Each structure stands twice: as C-alpha cells, then as structure tokens.
Amino acid sequence: MQYSEKGSLQHLLSIESLKTDTIEQIFSLAEKMNSGFEFAHLKNTNVCNAFFENSTRTLCSFELAEKKLGCHVVNFNTATSALKKGESLADTILTLNAMGFDAFVIRHSTEGSASKIAELVGPGACVVNAGDGKNEHPTQALLDAYTIAQHKSSFNNLSVGIFGDLLHSRVAGSLIHILHHLGVRDLRLVGPKSLLPTQLTHDYINTENDMNKGLEDLDVIVMLRMQRERMTDDIAPSIEEYFLHYGLSEERLNLAKPDAIVMHPGPMNREIEIASSVADGNQSVILDQVHNGVLIRMAVMAKLLGDL
Ligand code: CP
After folding, report:
1. Cis peptide leading into 267, omega within 30 of 0?
2. Out of 10, 105, 180, 286, which residue is the most buried by the measure of CB atoms under 10 Å away?
3. What residues contact 60, with CB distance under 8 A and at least 6 apart?
4. Mean per-residue pLDDT for 51-61?
5. Cα dist from 39 to 91, 145, 292, whole Å
C-alpha cells in the first residue's frame, strides 16, 4: 500500500516493501537538497507531525525539513490534546484529517500504527512512519544508509555489524532490510542471546553473542541503545555487566578495520553501549547521521508531496 496503482510512492511506511530504485531516488534528492536545491512546490502544503512517543532527532529534523521546503507545519501535542479527555487515536486522526492536512508524520508505540492510519486517512493524504513500536523506522534507515554511502564506495563488499538490543529495535528492523536492498552480503547481528531476534529474515545474516568476534574486520559498526522501556525484567541485562561484555570501547574498536565507521541512531547511553571516547572519536559519524537526517527527510517529503 506504499505505492499508488500508477506506481508512485504514496506513503512511506516500511523499508521492507520499498523498491531499491525509490531508495536511490531519495538519495539523489537528498544530494540535491545538500547542494542548496530550492524546492518551491510545497509552499501550499500542510503537514501534521503527530508523535505519540517522545523524540528529539526525528521530530525536530522533520519539522526543520518541512519548513525548509516551505510547508505549513503543525506539531500535534499529545500532552495538551483531547487524547487526555479519552478521545481515541482513530477519532484523533479522523479529526485532524478533516482539517485538510496533506501529510501526517506518525510516531507511535504500536507496531503497524502508521499503516492503519494510512488506511484511515484515505487517498487524500500521505503518511510517513516515523517509528512504530519495535517494527520499523524507515527514515532512520534511509539516513543511515545514505551516511554509509558517503563514507564507503560500495555496499556489495561491506561487512556491517549491528550491536546490542536488536530485539526491541525498529532501527534494526528497517536497517536490515535497506542493507539487503542495497547489496550488503555480510551482516552480523551481535548481542546477548536474550536481545537477538529468533527469526532471521535473510540467509546472509549471522548472529553472534561474542562481541569481540562480531567486530573482527568490520567496515561499519552500528551501536544500538538498550531499550529498557520495552523490556521485561527477566531479559534486561544489568548495566554494569553490559558495558563489560557489549560496550564499544577504544580497545574493542581496534578489532574492526582501521577505517571502520562507528554509527549510533541516538539517543546514546554513554558508557553503557558506547564509550564517550569512541562516540566523540575520529571514527564516529554519529553527528553526520543527524545532519543527514534533515536532508533525507526533505527528500522524502519532496518525493511524496512533490510527486517526483
Ligand atoms: N533516532 C531516533 O529515532 O531518535 P529520536 O527518538 O530522538 O527521534
């Protein structure tokens, strides 16, 4: 349901069903945005950012991206909304939709919520999934892959490791799919057994519980936050033990290739999954990811609303 019958992108709901040529078009639009391309077609469009879960990076970069494109932007505030009086999510969306928004950017704690909202609003508005529970976070994967492409020449020969709490990570959910679309053939998912997915989607993926082994000769290291808010007590590792076994220290980083890049979608838990000296070190591209988030979100909104 992401594509219209004519084959144009109507919503951005998941990376799994996104076509590789759409990913490439979004990267090329982001490149244009980076070189100061003026995109004036969106001056009469109205966008509602409805975040039912907290966010710093995604919300602020969507808002900035939309304003740079000239959109009128409303940030729906859940804390002061009629949700607090018992209005349902569906009635909230139908109410906002009746006001005439052209696009909704949705973050919600429930898997599949963005797709349900896309069904509710009908063909008159686009929906962008800005993170649905443990499922997907498509624009994060797009900005992550775009950042990798800025630092590495080809996806085909890359060894990529994703480390930490993969079980609860929508970032990993989308990143695994985009790396597959772009041709990565060595992907390692590394973490404690209790935090790794039990079903793997592709046969080029390997799981590893030993962090030192997982790091060997990697080109790209993606560290993830431990999402304690989504865990039950029986699987939550102790914070002290976690850094010892799964924290990325300077010493461990030496196991990867000397030109390996270190990524993290944020928010980071310094000294839990990543040492500050690594997060702020010269192999870190974490702030490049944030910067690219604005370009990718401009590209996504221009593609959806400008019908490029
Ligand atoms: N990476 C990410 O989704 O961060 P926020 O929760 O701050 O948006």
Report:
1. yes
2. 105
3. none
4. 97
5. 34, 23, 17
With vertex at residue 24, the alpha carbon angle to CA 222 and CA 169, rounded to the nearest 5 degrees, is 30
* pLDDT beyond 90 at 15: yes
> How far is ligand 1, taken at its centre, from the CA of residue 85, in Å?
27
- Percent of the chain at pLDDT > 90 equals 86
The two tokens of residue 261 are 């890049």
Give the model confidence (pLDDT) of 102-136 as tens digits: 999 999 999 999 999 999 999 999 999 999 999 99
User: Which residues, at least 6 apart from 301, have a Cβ–Cβ distance to it below 8 Å?
Assistant: 42, 47, 62, 65, 66, 69, 71, 103, 128
Integer Cα distance of 42 and 22 in angstroms: 20
- Answer for the pair 120, 148: CB distance below 8 angstroms, yes or no: no
Distance CA 195, CA 266 (A): 18
Report pTM. 0.96
Name the residue at shortest CA distance from atom 3 of ligand 1. Answer: 58
Distance 26 CA to ligand 1 centre (A): 20
Secondary structure class of 26 (helix, strand, coil): helix
C-alpha to C-alpha distance for 306 and 62, rounded to whole angstroms: 16
CA 5 / ligand 1 centre spacing (Å): 32
Instruction: List Cβ neighbours of 280 (8 Å cut-off, separation of 6 or more).
Output: none
> Tokens standing for 210?
């030993």
Report which ligand 1 atom has the smallest distance to the Cα of 265. Answer: 1
Instruction: Tell me the Ramachandran region of residue 7: left when phi exceeds 0, alpha when psi lies from -120 to 50, beta otherwise.
Output: left
Looking at the DSSP assignment, which residues form a beta bridge with residue 132?
108, 136
